[in-house]
Amino acid sequence: MMPSVLYMHGLNSAPASFKASQLRAAMQAMGLDAQLRVPALHHQPRQAIAQLEALIAELGRPLLVGSSLGGYYATHLAERHGLKALLINPAVRPHTLFDGLMGPQQNLYSGEIWQLSEEHLTALAALEVPPPQDPARYQVWLQTGDETLDYRQAERYYQGCTLCIEAGGDHGFAGFAEHLPQLLAFAGFAPAQWHAVDFSAL
User: Is pTM beyond 0.85 here?
Assistant: First the structure.
């Protein structure tokens, strides 16, 4: 089966986000953009998971790549389906992180306004799973300069998994493009497929 990648953006993000755009550009440069899906995830967790379940069924056994809240979704789905997951500054127990943030939210890319409610938190809590039982299926990329999430929570939760912890950086994971060969290798693509790609130009 041809390797494939399913990318999950974070809260109030979109397929136009910086990391998603760089990944898409890399896959296009390899002539493999048909093997990538980057859905615009619904703000309601249940609907987002339904979207992702449909794409997993379409792709077969994709590498799940999740950023921030997308990392939480990816963990839930990786545990449910026995898939590999690469998580970038993932949220851990996100339903506990919204104190004082209830009410109107705005997607940074689409401009959509929506209401963060107790229903969202309940739906997020329902997706929580124990720490991975098969840590070999996970890579977790963290930067200590993450201004949104405390990287140490993910470090503890994913202990035993392959952890890449870099000093500094930010929540967007600075230097993401330089790490794309590692992502592609984990997905199962052969190095010969990207040897001509200039990742520094993405």
Answer: yes
